[in-house]
Write a structure and sequence with these properties.
Elements (H helix, E strand, L loop, with lengths): L5 H6 L7 H18 L12 H25 L4 E5 L4 E4 L4 H5 L1 H16 L13
Antiparallel strand pairs: 1-2
Helix pairs in contact: 2-3, 3-5
């Protein structure tokens, strides 16, 4: 179950993805929200519905941007580019990210969730609910 529908994404969040792409990435974003909140988002109180929807939209856009980047670069990060000789160099921004870009992306998704899902009810709380 996605925490936001396309009408909310288009009208309230003012997103630019088409409906098919949004549905695909919103489903993945909702899974990330459930992972980050340890399943607490499913039973969140009504005052968290808007925060969950905005978080879902932002995560969906980030996932779509990464998908486009991965398709364009073959999964690497462009470090240098030469025009005449058409040479492109890929690398992470540091050695740890070069070895584990998935961890960097997971951290970024978690930070997005933290920014939206801590008030008025802290769904990111790691203690006993």
């Amino acid at each position: 179950m996605a925490y936001a529908d396309y009408a909310f994404y288009r009208d309230t969040f003012c997103g630019e993805l088409d409906a098919t792409a949004f549905d695909r990435f919103a489903a993945r974003a909702s899974l990330e929200i459930d992972r980050a909140t340890q399943g607490r988002a499913e039973c969140a109180p009504p005052e968290m519905e808007r925060a969950l929807a905005i978080c879902c939209c932002e995560l969906a856009e980030r996932l779509a941007a990464w998908d486009a980047q991965d398709k364009a670069t073959g999964g690497g990060i462009i470090a240098s580019e030469e025009v005449d000789g058409y040479r492109i160099g890929y690398r992470g921004s540091n050695a740890a990210e070069q070895q584990d870009p998935v961890a960097r992306r997971q951290r970024e998704l978690y930070n997005i969730c933290t920014g939206h899902l801590c008030a008025p009810v802290n769904l990111m709380y790691r203690g006993v609910w």
